[in-house]
Amino acid sequence: MTKAYLSLIGIDLKLAVRQRAVIFFNYLFPLIFFFIFAMVFRAGRNPGAAAYVVTMSVTLGILGSGFFGAGIRAIQEREMNILRRYKVTPITPAPLLVASMVTGWIIFMPLILLVLTMAHVFYAMPWPAHLGSLLLFVSLGLVAFRSMGLVIASVANSMQEGTILVQLCYLPMMFLSGATVPIEIFPPSVRVISHFIPASYLVEGVKGMVLRGEGISSNWNAVGALLIATAVGLILGMKLFRWEKEEKINRSAKLWIVAVLLPFVLLGALQVHRGEDVNKSSFFDRDTQRKQTLLISGAKIIADGKIIESGSVLVQDGKVVQIFEGKPPDAASLKAQPIDASGKTIVVSKGEIVDRSEIFGLQ
Amino acid sequence: MSADAIISVQALQKSYAAVHAVKGIDFEVLSGEVFGLLGPNGAGKTTTVEILEGLRPRSSGEARVLGFDPERQKQQLKDRIGVCLQATNLPEKIRVQEALELFATFYTRSVNSEQLLKRLQLWEKRNAFYGTLSGGQKQRLAIGLALINDPQLLFLDEPTTGLDPQIRLEMHLLIEELRAEKRTVVLTTHYIEEAERLCNRVAIIDEGKIVAIGTPMELQQKSRGQSRIQIMCGQPLTAGQLPQWPDALESSLSQDGRTLTVYSNRPARTLFEIMKWLDQHGVPLEDVHLKRPTLEDVFVELTGKKLRD
């Protein structure tokens, strides 16, 4: 039976490569968003913004892979009587579900590496301090969201129902988790909702690892919720698996979707109860910028009453540690990340840059 | 249960809520025979075979297939049988040979996919995507998938429905090959000629019940319907000169007197007597037609319906 698992994975991969839609939704779609977000948030001026753009692109990719790549595709295969052909063979749903997970993972992983590389090359974003942790966390998120997609496929009686259920899950996760719109722009009452949205934990986990150099150990809450969602999703996916479109499921079975979302609801309730914020950091995380060494050059500098027409500022851990007049020193020799601020004015007061938006773009 | 019965069904019933799809049927399928389930759409044929294939639970009754209980020993049973379903599909972008090789990995034993492709005349199409195949090629591939585990028992559920006559003929030849290989085949169909041509025995199903079972010949003989003998003569006859033929129920002459039509319950004996009479009277013979009652006639007689109602 191991042969069945391997051959299903092999065929799923071949089919994925042969379908333009799969390539578009798995690679081009997140990359288009990557560049759009990068332009909107001026990632070129701020490695922090670039990191946030990476988070958004990766999260969108995971949501798409889970709800559309796993969920909608499973419904399509049932509606087209493809699963019915498998039903007359001795295989159980397990190899089909496992093949869906593994294939989704293999297809997705190049995207994250591509996005990280582009952010590093084009927007000078530093590599995450714990790349292994990030890849592990993203893998877990992918498997969890694909499990959710498969549960939706299991409880939907038709493509129409499946599309509605997917949109009901996908849209709030897209807009209220920070995956596309920074959650900080919403009023506190709306921000509370994000505590109950599974994608929020994904966004926060990825952001923490990309922006703040966190490891997986700093995100145990999210890891736990994703693990439970994966386990519940796979168990339900097996239990509720249907081979044929004629096998209808009770309307009440749709409540099983709640079961797979329950770990996040409980985690959200716990965080609200404790008064914690799921968004541990704001969009343009000052902490992040403070942990970096930056050489901001070519700017007019006003430092404690002194005006330098063209100079550079070395910032370490958020503090201005040195001001240079004239030609800037070599950023590499200072182990600093260069930021071009030509035409900008930097006001330094008490060792801090007063108006950061001038340099770092959006605040 | 007969010693060489591969399938044994007793008092089998299947209900879906208030609908009784199968209402207590009994039959056996013997090793090496092609057994036909003949009936109109909605008669309960597909439900019956899907219970036997282990795809649906039965409501009551007993069923054994290759010694397995299809409800409790599904996986073992599915490993040993081949199934060609009425409406199935494969992904559009899977290649023909890939599909056979994929399905081969699902079973504990399998045949060589290349030999199977050649046998099914799909070798030239081995690298074609499933979505580009014609209806006949798709159906041949479906039979190939059913044969990939070299099954002793095959279920073919309406394998020729929707195919054009030429492709249907190809499928008939393929099923005849399977019969020659002594494989046991359960064939559901609503095509009379298919059942008559291919099946060793036929069960006629209507509204969830078996209304008749036997060889096509036995069923035809059970019919009250008469055979029609039609004789074209080289010279005109007159009604007055014709005798009463043995076992003939009715005789008539065409307007030109050249075509004699006789209905009989025992057509062989009646035909022999007509030939003898024509010879004695020196009437030249141009052509002879004998039309026996078909399974369709039997079906109409037993159920009062046509098969394709």
Explain this structure:
The complex is a heterodimer of chains A (363) and B (309). Chain A is α/β, with parallel strands linked by helices and 363 residues long. Chain A folds into 2 domains: 285 residues, no CATH class; 69 residues, Urease, subunit C, domain 1 (Roll), CATH 2.30.40. Chain A contains 13 helices and 6 strands. In chain A, strands 1, 2, 3, 4, 5 and 6 form a 6-stranded mixed beta sheet that branches. The longest helix of chain A has 33 residues. Chain B is of the alpha/beta class and 309 residues long. Chain B has 2 domains: 218 residues, 3-Layer(aba) Sandwich (Rossmann fold); 66 residues, Alpha-Beta Plaits (2-Layer Sandwich), CATH 3.30.70. In chain B, the strands form 3 sheets. A 6-stranded mixed beta sheet of chain B has the order 5-6-7-3-8-9, sandwiched between helices. The longest helix of chain B is centred in the middle third of the chain and has 16 residues. Classes of the chains: A alpha/beta (363), B alpha/beta (309). At the A-B interface, α1 and α4 of A face α2 and α3 of B.
| Sequence of secondary-structure elements of chain A | HHHHHHHHHHHHEEEEEEH
| Spatial extent as radius of gyration of chain B | 24 Å
CATH superfamily of the largest domain in chain B: P-loop containing nucleotide triphosphate hydrolases
What distance separates the N and C termini of chain A?
A: 56 Å
Please tell me what the overall shape of chain B is. Answer: elongated
Summing up helix and strand content along with how strands pair, one would put the structural category of chain B as alpha/beta
Indicate the structural class of chain A.
Answer: alpha/beta
Share in β-strands of chain A: 5-15%
Question: Kindly state the mean pLDDT of chain A as a whole number?
Answer: 83
Termini of chain B, distance in Å?
34 Å
Determine the fraction of residues in helical runs of chain B and give it as a percent range.
Answer: 25-40%
Q: Please tally the β strands of chain B and state the result.
A: 13
Could you say what the CATH topology of the largest domain in chain B is called? Rossmann fold
